[in-house]
Amino acid sequence: MKISTTRRNFVKSSSTLSAGAILASPHILKAVSNDKIIKVGLVGIGGRGSGAAAQAMNADPNVALTSIGDLYEDRIKLRSRILKARGRDKYQVTEETTFVGFDAYKKVIDSGIDVVILTSPPAFRPDQLEYAVKKGVHCFFEKPVAVDAPGVRKVIELAKQAKEKNLNFMSGFCWRHHYPKQEVFTRILNGDLGKVNAMYSTYNGGEVWKKKREEGWGDMEAQTRNWNAHLWLSGDSIVEQAVHCIDMMQWAMGETMPMHAEGTGGRQVYDDMDKYGNIYDHFAICYQWENGTKGYHFSRQQNGTAGSYELELFGEKGFCSAKNRHLIDAGENSWRFRGENNDMYQTEHDTLFSSIRSGKTFNDGERSAHSTMVAILGRMVAYTGQRISYSDALNSKESLVPSQLDWEKKLPVPQPPTPGVTRFV
User: Among 350, 312, 280, which residue's Cα sits nearest to residue 196?
Assistant: First the structure.
């Protein structure tokens, strides 16, 4: 399995292609006429799913949302009213095309749709993608692509299958569609900073939503309704949330994989397992690339603490703020983005539906899978306290997702990992 491209070849190609173009592997299939309605199904109608569905309906004049699936009927009732108001005549979901339960994704995909939006908890992503590709449906799927290495490996293979079938296969790494970042990373890859010696990425913020267990909920319901607090469902915050920063480090490195990582993490404020599950509330990771570049990543979910969401790069020629200020400080060659800004969430769907219409497919599945794996590597080294190579991490046999998804299943929450005690599998 090839897990990297050379930085030299990537930089060479990026000098002749726009940053947006190098994200996807273009394949040609039959174009879809402008008057044909593209039918969209939504699986996972949470906040991000609702937003993605609304953006899909805005992306093309002839798009209709025709099917919705979720684990819970009450969530569909709550958010579908909002979507119906936003989509108006493009909202064409009926009772017959509304599905609930663990197999809802299959019913959505089988309902006659052309595109599926997959925004369920990350644990379910690989199996849902597998079914969509098998059925020949275009995919938009949120990040991360999986919660463990077996899931990542499956998505890498599915991305290849999607290419063979000329299916669009777009991840939700939204910063890749942000005009200022496309420009700043093109300049980085073209050598405006020279060799990047070090990177400093942060995703430091407060506690995100958590739900304490309610009376009458079984183990499965308690955990899926509070999914971001549970390792098997979310992959932990470094994988589910801070992966955006790690993806930008990968972007800056031309998609080459780090050789290894080491780091730490733990729970300082997450003290109630019914509410906070078994995830960590902070991480500190050091990634090492073969060319000597080091990437330092820090993230936390702790209320009352200083916030920071940034990627800073330190190169031979100067300094770059790639996330917030979009500038390069390199003496006479200093630069700052002054161009048009955009709604990156809308742009990614504009790109997806334009690709479907034109017959030129967009596929960033392998890249998004490797970015997810780099985040999982960070989690692994924090949990174990060991130095782990990217290759070993990618080939890990640790599978987090239960083999059987059952509402009556007893599913006790494991104790949080302990560095020096928890073992790499």
Answer: 312
On whether residue 359 sits in a domain, the answer given is yes
**What tens-digit pLDDT sequence spans the chain (425 residues)?**
333 333 333 333 333 333 443 344 445 456 888 889 999 999 999 999 999 999 999 999 999 999 999 999 999 999 999 999 988 999 999 999 999 999 999 999 999 999 999 999 999 999 999 999 999 999 999 999 999 999 999 999 999 999 999 999 999 999 999 999 999 999 999 999 999 999 999 999 999 999 999 999 999 999 999 999 999 999 999 999 999 999 999 999 999 999 999 999 999 999 999 999 999 999 999 999 999 999 999 999 999 999 999 999 999 999 999 999 999 999 999 999 999 999 999 999 999 999 999 999 999 999 999 999 999 999 999 999 999 999 999 999 999 999 889 999 999 999 999 999 999 99
- Give the domain range for residue 317: 177-343+371-394
Tell me, yes or no, whether 190 and 142 share the same domain.
Answer: no
**Contact call for residues 341 and 180 (beta carbons, < 8 A):** yes
**Domain total for the chain?**
2
From residue 34, alpha-carbon distances to 138, 139, 185, 354, 395 in Å are 17, 20, 33, 10, 44
> pTM to 2 decimals?
0.93
Quick one: CA dihedral 226, 229, 231, 233, positive or negative? positive
